[in-house]
Design a protein that fits this description.
The protein has 146 residues and is mainly beta. 9% of the residues lie in helices and 40% in strands.
C-alpha cells in the first residue's frame, strides 16, 4: 500500500506554478555545496535531512515527503532556504534492505538563500522506502545539493 502511494506521489509531476528565481552567490564567495548524511521520515508525513554541511544549521526543518516527488523548498534549521526541482525514478534497490524499494531523485537548484549553492547546481538523493513507508538514505550515500 505505501509503495503504491509513494509511486503515485512520485508520478504526480512538477509543483504547479513553480517558478525559477535567479540567485547569485555574492562576489568573492565560493558556493561549497550542501551534503546531508542522514534522512528520516515517512512517506505519509514529513522527512528531515540531518548531519548537513553548508550554511544550513546542520539540518532541515521537517518537510512534506511529497516534496521528494517533484521538488520544493527546503527550510534549514537556520531559517535559510534552498529550492529544488526534482525528477524521481525507481532505482535498482541492490543496496536497500530486502523488501525495501529504492528511489533515485536528481534535479537542480532553482533558488538558494544559504549561499552554499548556486542556481542550477545539481541535486542527488537515493532513498530506501520500507513497506511501512519509512524513508532513509540509501546506505553509504548522502543527499547532495551542489
Amino acid at each position: 500500500m505505501f509503495k503504491s502511494r509513494f509511486s503515485r506521489i512520485l508520478a504526480s509531476g512538477a509543483l504547479a506554478g513553480a517558478g525559477v528565481v535567479a540567485f547569485a552567490v555574492p562576489s568573492g564567495a565560493a558556493a561549497s555545496g550542501i551534503a546531508c548524511k542522514s534522512m528520516t521520515g515517512n512517506i505519509t508525513g514529513n522527512v528531515t535531512l540531518k548531519k548537513c554541511t553548508g550554511n544550513t544549521g546542520k539540518a532541515s526543518k521537517p518537510l512534506p515527503a511529497t516534496a521528494l516527488a517533484s521538488g520544493g523548498t527546503i527550510t534549514w534549521k537556520n531559517n535559510k532556504t534552498t529550492t529544488v526541482k526534482l525528477k524521481v525514478k525507481q532505482g535498482p534497490g541492490t543496496k536497500c534492505k530486502v523488501g525495501d524499494t529504492e528511489y533515485d531523485a536528481s534535479g537542480k537548484v532553482t533558488k538558494d538563500t544559504t549561499g552554499s549553492v548556486a542556481k542550477g547546481a545539481k541535486t542527488v538523493a537515493k532513498v530506501c522506502v520500507t513497506p511501512a513507508g519509512a524513508i532513509t538514505l540509501l546506505p553509504g550515500t548522502q543527499a547532495t545539493i551542489g
